[in-house]
Structure formats: C-alpha cells, structure tokens
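Worked example 3 (structure in, sequence out).
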C-alpha cells in the first residue's frame, strides 16, 4: 500500500476530525486548527495566503482536503467571515498549489498535490431538486453564495476534486453538536422538538465521505462529484427515522413548515443531489437506515 500524506484543513471540525480518524490507520495525516486549539495540529488562518503557502511548504502534502467553512452567515459580521473562509480560503489553497512547484523549479512534480474541497448542496436554489453535477448553481443564501465562490476558486487549479455534501451526520465524540445529535439528546431528555417538513436533502454519513475520497484517489479522478447519502428525505421524516433507529419517542417530534419558523433566513426547499456519477465509480453511499445504524453502533448504543 502506498502511504499518502494528507493535510486536513479544519481537522478539529465535525467532518475533518472523522477524516483524520479514517485516514490515520494507513496513512500520514497532518491537521490544522483555527479557533479550537489542538496541540497535535498546525494553526492556520486559511484566509491568509502567505500562511497557507508557508504551511504547504512546511508539510509538503500529497493531498490537501479543505473541510473548513462558516455555515452561519446571517449577521453582517458572519457574512464577512464567510467571505474570508468560504470564498477566499479555497482560492488561496488553489493559488498556492498552482504556484508551488513553479517556484521550487521541480517541473517533474508539477501538480502533484491533489486539492479536495468540500462544497455544499446549498449552491442550488432548491426549486427542482435531484441536481446533477451539470446543473447550473444558483444559490439564494449568503452561505451558498460564498461556497460557490469557493468552488470557482478551486476549479482554477487543475488537480482538484470538489465534493458537494449535505446534512452531515455520524459519530466522533459525545460532545458532537450536529442536527442528528441534537435530535437524539432532545428526545432522550423527553423534550418536544419542532422539525420542518418541507425542506428536502440527502443526509450523508461522514464515514462514507472518507471512503469515497480514498476510492476517487485510487482511481486518479478529478472534477466535481455529488457526495451525499443515497436517500432523499425531509428533515422531519429524517428526525422520525433517527427516533426509530435509536428507540426514542418519535411522538415528541412535531412537524412544522418553514413558514412556521418565522425567521429571516433564506433556506432552499429541495437541494437533493443525484449521485449517479459517484455510483459510476462503484462508490456506494449509505441509505438512512444503514447510516444511522452505523452511527448507533459506533456510539455503543444497545
């Protein structure tokens, strides 16, 4: 087996932490942190191109995976930060990768680094659903707009893989604060929760993303891939599935519409993604029952 040196940007985050744990079994892994300090990792502000360049020169990775992002971009302060991290950060990575080998003069290894960037289903407006990689993006939220700019920056680097993911779930540690974990903890505490019934996505087990990355690298693939779970579902029905798999009281889950939330947040209604391209590479993504069962087993829930 060839040992790959991975540089995971955002290694202390939900997905980044899982990828570290998956890859470190057989490969060399270097992680970065920003706000959540971790002495095992390198500090990086991805919006600082000089810092990005210095880190890549220091670590000399074979593969860079960018998992860093700012999901909450509703206030003016967060909008500015989202521009720096979601838009400028990926562009910085691509720019540095483009010039890295030119500056060293080692033309034989030009474009050796593969840059893998995590994007999102929110680059689409949600009007039709079942989007393919060929559909034109049309984000309606600031978050989606900044993530699309990030994609556009990465595409300028030839050796890229862009994975569009959605509604991530899985298990890392008991303190995880993702949507699925909130559902589980709320129902365990006997709390009634309200979940919207008219927003549809393809919930994605984070374990599957790691497996997909390894397979695409093995096949020497580049380009854009939808990398989501194989089942399309509303957030409400997903919450009910969570309750069923974990043996919790699903009657505590109340169905509401997006209009009932009365929030000034723009949410696309149907950002389900078609994964035919990924399947053509013989990459299988879990359905919801399979994914939640994997999560339950990793949590040690009987």
């Amino acid at each position: 087996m060839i040992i790959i040196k991975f540089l995971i940007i955002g290694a202390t985050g939900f997905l980044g932490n899982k990828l570290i744990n998956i890859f470190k079994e057989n490969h060399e892994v270097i992680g970065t942190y920003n706000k959540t300090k971790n002495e095992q990792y390198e500090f990086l502000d991805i919006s600082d191109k000089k810092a990005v360049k210095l880190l890549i020169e220091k670590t000399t990775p074979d593969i860079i995976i960018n998992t860093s992002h700012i999901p909450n971009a509703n206030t003016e302060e967060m909008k500015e930060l989202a521009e720096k991290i979601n838009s400028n950060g990926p562009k910085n990575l691509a720019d540095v990768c483009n010039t890295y080998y030119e500056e060293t003069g080692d033309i034989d290894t030009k474009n050796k680094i593969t840059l893998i960037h995590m994007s999102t289903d929110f680059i689409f407006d949600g009007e039709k659903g079942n989007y393919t990689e060929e559909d034109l993006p049309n984000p309606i939220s600031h978050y989606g707009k900044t993530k699309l700019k990030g994609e556009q920056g990465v595409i300028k680097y030839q050796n890229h893989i862009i994975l569009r993911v959605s509604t991530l779930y899985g298990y890392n540690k008991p303190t995880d604060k993702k949507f699925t974990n909130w559902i589980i903890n709320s129902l365990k505490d006997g709390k009634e929760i309200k979940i919207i019934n008219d927003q549809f996505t393809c919930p994605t087990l984070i374990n599957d993303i790691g497996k997909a990355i390894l397979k695409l690298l093995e096949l020497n693939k580049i380009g854009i891939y939808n990398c989501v779970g194989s089942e399309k579902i509303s957030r409400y029905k997903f919450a009910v599935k969570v309750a069923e798999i974990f043996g919790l009281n699903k009657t505590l889950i109340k169905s509401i519409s997006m209009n009932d939330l009365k929030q000034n947040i723009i949410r696309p209604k149907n950002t389900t993604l078609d994964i035919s391209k990924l399947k053509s590479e013989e990459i299988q993504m879990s359905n919801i029952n399979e994914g939640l069962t994997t999560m339950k087993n990793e949590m040690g829930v009987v």
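Notes: Residues 5-176+202-232+271-286 form a domain with the Rossmann fold fold (CATH 3.40.50.720). The chain has a mean pLDDT of 93.
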